[in-house]
């Protein structure tokens, strides 16, 4: 009865926890309200200033960091020549976090600050809830005046703007191993489209440069050739602007949606990630701004800060003026002042006024107490942001009226309108999201309730291990407190590295009658090597490590270690699988699995990172290049699935006497299949890490640890290995390179599972191996799995509760969207993806297969 009650307690705890997380997420990540409908010109006001351009070519190069265009090492030599001549006006466009494609495209088209929930929707390609079909944007403004728009490239645009394009050809943004075809699919439309006269806006979104960054970083040997390829496209379009009469009045915009960090990733707030290039190009600029050429290549004023820095959203009102349509209703951008020279004095003031009035409408909606009727004398007492905005508007109104009546003080009027608009932008951008505190509180309370239940369950099933009973609550409490410090969240890997070292030092000191002392020292040594495998976190993400500075420099050593890792798996499979069918069948099966897996990994590397193929293995790569990667991956997965089904059907006995030493643990066989799958989903340079993991696992198995100590050891190693494999609490660390193995098209469930597996390689290994350690020890009592489950559940309940409290308390913190929100998203993934699916789901299957730890 006690055991049944304990299992009921675990069930309630792990039902409450995901419910609490989803409730909190709904309150923490709401969609921000937007004005419906499209902006229209006021019929009672003066007509808008004449537009210098009739059409726009909007070319987005994904992850186009500012230095990729403006620095000495840039491949954009033609673009630089346009900047020097004055035909191109360069900027660094500040992109706010999250620096991923969907929210950045929203900023570039609507001028608004996207919701952080777009981080999740960015990965859900089939999602349609993020559509901008009914929201004002410069695309909608062009369509409103019966203009036609064409789009070629990243299919994010098709999802955001369904039915908006007269012609389109979308490409998936998540096949990050493709550097070439993904861009060729865009370029092949250029010549035909340039000759067409029926479009008013053409959008191209190139993905290859971003993919190169994800795979091998900003200093990849592929990076400069890709920049030169993009520069050639710029030249092709510029020449068309000059040569084709119907493009004479066309504005060409070259923009990055975001940048990348030193590791080639993005999603966070590092300077490289938030500093994309922005270049407006037209022969008209050279005529409008005589002598307006800028030095190029140039040196940044600060890191990645070239020329004038503008907000990425500023492109929206600027396009509105240059193309002659109203500023979109939800825009928070400010007209770029350096382009006002395209108009005469009175028109410049009119443009800034229209922008200021549009921002004023948002301020009035956001702050009902905004007062613009009082006198300027009230400004002396202004103390809040809203009161300051009111003062700036009054001053701007007074200056504008004076300018209209007397035609004087144009510069003062422009300055005041610009200051007011910029202050509006700052206040509205920094304003707290419309959090639903009721939902956030409900989620937090439910999480605390599940924490209390799990702690009660620990007391009911506690084990006499003073080391574990002291270390677990202390480390959990320290981890929770750490969630309130942004630097500790960004560099969380250090916590787990210290905790892992501290835990095994404690085991060494305890010694377990001198049996566990030497293995714990060996484990400490191996973990020290694993810590140096991949630099992670924010501060040192691009620093030297074993994978980049040793294995990539010496690919022959890398492949030797990879082959050794596969050989170990081959030996395990050949010795433990298909026991009833015979050793010969097991040998053939293991050979097929490993041959297809190794061939897939080799062919994948040959296409993805050919610089990692040693010269003596090039013939093998050439022999494999005609075999589709999808087929190789599917053959590997298929063989693994056959082995698992055979084991379930024929190898697992109907019943196993408890503690029967002669029965082979079927969970061990499952573990071999899981390792084969995990290696297939692992980045090439991380495959040798499995050799370290298996050495640590073997050493752990030689130690006489209690069941609770096994649970704590594998839990610590799970988090340790997550970071050792390159994980971090940043959206930019999500690895999509293996998310499409064996997938020929987008399937949200399969891609989500493969993404989870490829990013949680180490934790999945230790979650499964923890069950192996629990089920194979003959001294194990029958409540071990119960205790194991309740300790893990308690850890995730308590730590998520701390994360929720930190996000609630710090919801107005400067780093709420760059540090704490990503941490909450990772906490969701750890609980919903890892704990529920792996610890409880897969762990339960492993325990069932072992038949030694269930009650």
Can you give a write-up of this model?
The protein has 33 helices and 8 strands. It has 2 domains: 288 residues, Alkaline Phosphatase, subunit A, CATH 3.40.720.10; 390 residues, no CATH class. The longest helix is centred in the C-terminal third of the chain and has 35 residues. It has an 8-stranded mixed beta sheet, with helices on both faces. It is mainly alpha-helical and 855 residues long. α27 packs antiparallel against α31, α31 runs parallel beside α33 and α32 packs antiparallel against α33. About 2% of the residues have low confidence.
Keywords:
GPI ethanolamine phosphate transferase 2; endoplasmic reticulum; 8-stranded mixed β-sheet; about 850 residues; mainly alpha; Alkaline Phosphatase, subunit A; 33 helices; transferase; CP2 mannose-ethanolamine phosphotransferase activity; 2 domains; PIGG/GPI7_C
Short recap of the structure:
The protein has 855 residues and is mainly alpha-helical. It is built from 33 helices and eight strands.
Tally the structural domains: 2
Structural class: mainly alpha
What percent of the residues sit in helical stretches (DSSP H or I)? 55-70%
Mean pLDDT: 84
Rg, alpha carbons: 30 Å
The portion of residues forming beta strands comes to 5-15%
Terminal Cα span: 11 Å
Uncertain segments = 125-129, 655-664
Number of separate strands: 8
The side-by-side strand order for the widest beta sheet comes to: 4-3-5-1-6-7-2-8
**Outline:** globular
Major sheet size, sense and barrel closure: 8 strands, mixed
Number of distinct helices: 33
Pfam families: Phosphodiest, PIGO_PIGG
Transmembrane segments: 7-29, 439-459, 471-489, 554-573, 585-607, 627-650, 662-679, 685-703, 710-728, 748-774, 795-816, 828-849
Domain GPI ethanolamine phosphate transferase 2 C-terminal: 432-851
Keywords: Endoplasmic reticulum, Glycoprotein, GPI-anchor biosynthesis, Membrane, Transferase, Transmembrane, Transmembrane helix
């Amino acid at each position: 009865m006690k055991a049944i009650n304990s299992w009921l307690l675990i069930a309630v705890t792990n039902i409450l926890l995901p419910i609490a997380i989803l409730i909190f997420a709904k309150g923490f990540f709401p969609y921000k309200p937007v004005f419906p409908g499209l902006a229209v010109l006021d019929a009672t006001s003066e007509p808008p200033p004449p537009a210098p351009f009739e059409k726009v070519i909007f070319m987005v190069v994904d992850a186009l960091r500012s230095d990729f265009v403006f620095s000495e090492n840039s491949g954009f030599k033609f673009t630089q020549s346009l900047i020097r001549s004055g035909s191109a006006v360069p900027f660094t466009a500040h992109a706010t976090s999250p620096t991923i494609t969907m929210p950045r495209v929203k900023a570039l088209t609507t001028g608004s600050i996207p919701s952080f929930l777009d981080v999740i929707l960015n990965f859900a390609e089939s999602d349609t809830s993020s559509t901008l079909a009914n929201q004002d944007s410069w695309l909608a403004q062009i369509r409103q005046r019966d203009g036609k728009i064409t789009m070629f490239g990243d299919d994010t645009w098709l999802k955001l703007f369904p039915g908006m394009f007269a012609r389109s050809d979308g490409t998936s943004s998540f096949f990050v191993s493709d550097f070439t075809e993904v861009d060729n699919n865009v370029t092949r439309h250029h010549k035909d489209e340039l000759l067409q006269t029926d479009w008013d806006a053409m959008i191209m979104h190139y993905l290859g440069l971003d993919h190169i960054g994800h795979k091998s970083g900003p200093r990849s040997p592929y990076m400069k050739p890709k920049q030169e390829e993009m520069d050639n496209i710029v030249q092709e379009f510029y020449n068309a602007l000059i040569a084709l009469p119907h493009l004479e009045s066309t504005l060409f915009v070259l923009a990055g949606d975001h940048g990348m960090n030193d590791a080639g990733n993005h999603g966070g707030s590092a300077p490289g990630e938030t500093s994309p290039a922005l270049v407006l190009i037209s022969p008209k600029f050279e005529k409008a701004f005589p002598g307006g050429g800028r030095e190029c290549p140039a040196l940044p004023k600060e890191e990645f800060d070239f020329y004038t820095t503008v907000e990425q959203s500023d492109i929206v009102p600027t396009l509105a003026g240059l193309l002659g349509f109203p500023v979109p209703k939800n825009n928070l951008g400010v007209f770029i002042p350096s382009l006002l020279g395209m108009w005469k004095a009175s028109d410049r003031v009119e443009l800034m006024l229209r922008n200021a009035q549009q921002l004023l409408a948002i301020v009035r909606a956001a702050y009902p107490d905004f007062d613009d009727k009082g006198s300027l004398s009230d400004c002396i007492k202004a103390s809040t942001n809203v009161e300051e905005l009111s003062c700036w508007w009054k001053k701007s109104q007074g200056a504008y009226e004076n300018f209209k009546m007397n035609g004087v003080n144009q510069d003062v009027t422009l300055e005041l309108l610009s200051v007011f608009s910029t202050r509006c932008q700052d206040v509205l951008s920094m304003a707290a999201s419309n959090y639903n505190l009721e939902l956030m509180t409900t989620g937090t309370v439910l999480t605390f309730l599940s924490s209390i239940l799990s702690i009660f369950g620990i007391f009911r099933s506690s084990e006499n291990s003073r080391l574990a009973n002291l270390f677990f609550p202390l480390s959990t409490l320290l981890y929770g407190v750490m969630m309130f410090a942004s630097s500790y969240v960004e560099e969380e890997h250090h916590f787990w590295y210290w905790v892992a070292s501290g835990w095994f030092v404690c085991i060494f000191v305890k010694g377990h009658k001198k049996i566990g002392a030497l293995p714990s020292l060996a484990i400490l040594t191996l973990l020290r090597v694993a810590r140096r495998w991949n630099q992670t976190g924010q501060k040192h993400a691009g620093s030297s490590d074993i994978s980049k500075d040793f294995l990539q420099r010496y690919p022959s050593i890398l492949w030797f270690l990879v082959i050794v890792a596969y050989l170990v798996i081959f030996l395990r499979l050949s010795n433990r699988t298909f026991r009833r069918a015979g050793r010969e069948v097991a040998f053939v099966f293991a050979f097929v699995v490993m041959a297809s897996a190794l061939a897939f990994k080799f062919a994948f590397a040959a296409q993805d990172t050919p610089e990692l193929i040693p010269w003596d293995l090039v013939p093998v790569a050439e022999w494999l290049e005609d075999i589709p990667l999808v087929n190789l991956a599917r053959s590997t997965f298929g063989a693994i699935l056959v082995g698992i089904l055979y084991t379930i059907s024929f190898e697992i006995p109907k019943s196993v006497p408890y503690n029967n030493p002669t029965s082979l643990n079927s969970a061990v066989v499952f573990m071999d299949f899981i390792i084969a799958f995990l290696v297939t989903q692992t980045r090439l340079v991380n495959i040798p890490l499995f050799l370290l993991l298996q050495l640590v696992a073997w050493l752990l198995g030689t130690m006489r640890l209690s069941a609770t100590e096994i649970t704590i050891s594998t839990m610590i190693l799970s988090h340790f290995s997550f970071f050792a494999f390159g994980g971090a609490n940043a959206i930019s660390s999500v690895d999509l390179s293996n998310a499409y193995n064996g997938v020929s098209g987008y399937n949200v469930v399969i891609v989500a599972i493969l993404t989870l597996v490829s990013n949680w390689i180490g934790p999945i290994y230790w979650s499964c191996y923890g069950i192996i350690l629990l089920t194979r020890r003959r001294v194990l009592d029958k409540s071990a799995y119960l205790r194991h489950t309740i300790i893990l559940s308690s850890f995730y309940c308590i730590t998520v509760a701390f994360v929720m409290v930190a996000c609630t308390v710090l919801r107005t913190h400067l780093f709420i969207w760059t540090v704490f929100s990503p941490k909450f998203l990772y906490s969701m993934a750890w609980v919903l993806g890892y704990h529920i699916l792996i610890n409880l789901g897969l762990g339960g299957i492993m325990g069932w297969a072992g038949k030694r730890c269930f009650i």
